[in-house]
Predict the structure.
Amino acid sequence: MRWDEFAVACPKIAELADERFRTDQLVMLGTIRPDGTPRISPCEVDFTEGRLLLGMMWQSHKARDLLRDARLAVHSVPSDKDNQGGDIKLYGRAVEQHDAEVRSAYREAILARIEWAPDEPNFHLFSFDVREAGFIRFGDAPLAMAWDDERGFRDVRHPDG
């Protein structure tokens, strides 16, 4: 489901992810290489048109991975070993965006964020179709939550609890 639909279906995790991704402006993106092994890459994220968008350099390895196999995972960037902000993990599928309005809105969003935008048509743009999500925080305020499109939201037993 699109980001705006996910935010309605699972506001607790979506709000944490939204805040974290907007602050960090970066996630770790997991894709599948041609030989089936995993690839992990940093990737900037932007929110616009009700979508969580991932822009990529033209013909980058991670973009070619997603064009071949749309499955992906996104993980928030830990700040340090204690990671007081917790871990956000999203799983789903990449949807290539060709729509001119979505691409234009993305270019405006990234321009506002970093005062630069890629030129058309020399970039790949994918939206994230969320299928599963999770959040876990350790330390003084442990918390574990999960969501998927079949079972919905649930609090999860924390490994420290």
Summary: The domain at 3-154 is CATH 2.30.110.10 (Pnp Oxidase; Chain A).
